[in-house]
Amino acid sequence: MTDRFTPQPTNPFATSRTSPGVVPYRFAPGRRGGNPQAANMHLETLLAALKECRRGLIVGPHGTGKTTLVHSLLPKLQRAYPMVSFNHLSSDPSDGWFKRFIARLKHYRKIRGEMLRLPGDGLLVVDGWEQLSRYSRYRLARSAFLRNINLLATAHRRITGWTVVAETSTSPEMIQSLAGDLLAETPHEIKKLVADQIKSRRVSERTNVRELWFDMYDVVAKAQTESRRDKSFGEL
After folding, report:
1. Burial 95-126 (b: 16+ CB within 10 A, else e)
2. Residue at 129 is within a domain
3. Among 34, 36, 45, 204, which residue's CB has the most CB atoms within a 10 Å radius?
4. What is the separation, in whole angstroms, between the first and last Cα of the chain?
5. Is the pTM of this model over 0.90?
6. Which CATH number goes with the domain that contains 36?
7. Containing domain of residue 189, as a range?
8. Compositional bias (Polar residues) spans (predicted)?
């Protein structure tokens, strides 16, 4: 029988391995996209575009890497501005209107407090600008202008008065490259299983990669469980 203390294989799609800040943003699929020098050049270009405007926006559909891109850019931002305040906003889409209202109010108070801490020419980063109400967005943008605070935000669509400094999207090639990075140390059978699963889905430039990874986690977990069970039966 298998030793119960034998380490179990880690699921490559666990959130500890796919969360923003753990995985660097990929600007292109294949080896070129994984080149640190090329990624650094892209980040420098993005930073330069942001420094030329007061309100920079990273735009893209759900789950296409906006938060990951911000995390990859953050070290450069912290060196380029006298002070940076990073804020990630999220909410549960299943919440009713009252809970959403309370959440947006809390978000506004939090962001407002962070802005008041920043010195002139500081940078306020809001990952999830659309989690704020329209009125809150207006008040924060106006306050930032009056206090000489720079803004960088993520959103799902363009906003009048903001400069788009980056747009995120994905593709079948990009998703396969990202999966390949995560599966680098897994058995061939798991790699093939995931590749076949991805090919069977209609992925596009708007595919929510975050949700796809959740699905792949379940696929790999099931395969790992069946593999352990088969080995246990074989050793009886």
Report:
1. eeeeeeeebbeebbeebeebbeebeeebbbbb
2. yes
3. 34
4. 6
5. no
6. 3.40.50.300
7. 170-234
8. 1-19
